[in-house]
Write a structure and sequence with these properties.
The protein is mainly α and 479 residues long. The chain has 24 helices and no strands. The relative contact order is 0.15.
Length: 479
């Protein structure tokens, strides 16, 4: 099988990015309702045509790659559907409204963005999951931000920055474990080594959020009081409702699998809803309590409030709201699979490997490859594996420890996945927070500072301590 040239391999990628840009400019967030999916399938068809017509790629190989890659994201799709049910039941049971009301009383508007980032970082470290963090406390913080008058992009950016900080350094995180294992680095060695780049990155993000918090003209105390009153009119607000989040935290601490934890949490929220919010269930389904329970899971639902902002906030979509995202994920993974089967992905990434010169060039090549893989494969797990395997031998041959590679992969691949509109992470967080990826992208500061910080630290090492032996002062093997 002939390998395509990098220029030929880039044709489907250029087509994809160009057409997605056109779709977003034409349809805005509605492009997720079909336009982006069709573009991804079109890019897949172009890839298949080039591979089969000019490079003798067999259809059986392409089909096998598609089946394998879609099978690899099947657990993520199930988790995504359950997140839809969880966010809906937590809202209708009064859990999220309770968190919003208490949050409005506690959090100062001036430090809201920084507080949001810190809260999400703590929750994400404890849970090991950015998805769970965004789907639970993230939704409540979005509501608080709306009540305080912060733009959705800033609030979502603070939530995502904190959530992906925790996801990156938590020993419970699947991406952290995956990166350390594929790079053959002990887990806690990998986490400690990431601190050289992660702490400066989150510090910069927090400084920006602190400054931004004082720049906005947030709503007055009377406005937030009216917002809280509208919520109290619609829901029973009680600290007893917070039992569900506490029990969910216990399940996470016990390391119960994510899908099981989300399912149990959604069921507990539904029981809470039946006990505390029967009027809400009857309202969403014309007085039928049982049908209301079904809608709470599968959606969509609509509740009227005296406050228009509250009305839009408490509308839920349940599992049904995730179906377009699932469709988009399948189409995106199909495109990545065709690029992989036709060797076009390999042709593009090998360019970055060959261009790597010196420590800075090597780290920068790995970082840019991680971002490129997130763009093409649409899946952070596959991107982490490919990036680790692709650069593993190169780092060894040039005398650098594996933990330098594992840190670079985590700095670039894990945290930038949420910035790609058609990546599974970007699609999920955009759907859960109801904020377009391109809207929160400029404000997810931690996520794009991290790869830059990785390159910057490598430049400092190269400038002030050029390694004359196999390991320099930062690469020295630990005993």
């Amino acid at each position: 099988m002939k390998h395509p040239s990098p220029i030929v391999a880039l044709l489907p990628v250029v087509f994809l990015i160009t057409m997605v840009s056109v779709a977003v400019s034409s349809f805005g967030s509605d492009s997720l309702n079909g336009a982006n999916q069709m573009i991804l399938l079109g890019a897949s068809m172009l890839t298949v045509f080039i591979g089969m017509a000019f490079y003798k790629t067999k259809w059986a190989d392409i089909e096998q790659s598609i089946v394998k890659n879609i099978g690899g994201v099947a657990p993520a799709i199930l988790i995504l559907l359950m997140i839809g049910a969880l966010s809906s039941t937590w809202m209708l049971s009064g859990i999220v409204p309770t968190l919003i009301c208490y949050g409005l009383d506690i959090i100062s508007p001036q430090i809201f963005l920084a507080s949001t980032c810190i809260i999400c970082a703590i929750v994400s470290v404890l849970t090991g999951s950015s998805w769970t963090t965004v789907a639970t406390i993230g939704i409540a913080l979005m509501g608080i931000g709306t009540a305080l008058g912060f733009p959705d992009g800033w609030t979502a950016g603070a939530i995502i920055s904190g959530a992906y900080f925790g996801d990156k350094i938590s020993p419970l995180s699947d991406t952290t474990v995956l990166t350390s294992s594929t790079c053959d680095v002990p887990l806690f060695t990998h986490i400690r080594y990431m601190m050289f780049t992660t702490i400066p990155s989150i510090t910069i993000a927090l400084v920006v959020f602190c400054i931004a918090g004082f720049q906005f003209s947030v709503t007055t105390q009377a406005d937030t009081a009216a917002f809280s009153q509208a919520i109290n009119e619609k829901f029973v607000i009680s600290p007893w409702l917070l039992i569900v989040p506490v029990l969910t935290g216990v399940l996470i601490a016990k390391k119960v699998p994510a899908l099981i934890t989300l399912s149990i949490s959604a069921l507990m929220a539904m029981v809470t809803c039946v006990i505390a919010q029967q009027d809400v269930l009857r309202e969403i389904c014309d007085g039928n309590l049982f049908d209301g329970m079904m809608l709470a899971f599968f959606g969509p639902t609509a509740l009227l409030s005296s406050n228009e902002t509250v009305s839009s906030l408490i509308d839920t979509n349940g599992m049904a709201g995730m179906l377009n995202t699932v469709w988009l994920i399948i189409c995106a993974i199909t495109f990545g699979a065709t690029m992989q089967a036709t060797k076009m992905l390999e042709a593009i990434t090998l360019v970055f490997v060959k261009l790597a010169r010196g420590l800075v060039g090597l780290v920068a090549s790995s970082a840019f490859t991680g971002i490129l893989l997130n763009t093409i494969t649409s899946d952070q797990y596959l991107s982490i594996i490919l990036n680790s395997k692709m650069f593993g031998d190169v780092f060894k041959q040039r005398g650098y420890e594996n933990r330098l590679l594992s840190r670079t992969v985590e700095d670039s691949t894990t945290v930038t996945s949420v910035l790609i509109p058609w990546n599974t992470c970007g699609m999920t967080q955009s759907t859960v927070l109801d904020v377009a990826t391109i809207t929160y992208m400029p404000y997810a500061i931690f996520c794009y500072i991290s790869p830059l910080m990785s390159i910057f630290v490598a430049a400092l090492i190269s400038k002030y301590k050029v390694p004359s032996t196999k390991y320099d002062y930062l690469h020295k093997e630990e005993t």
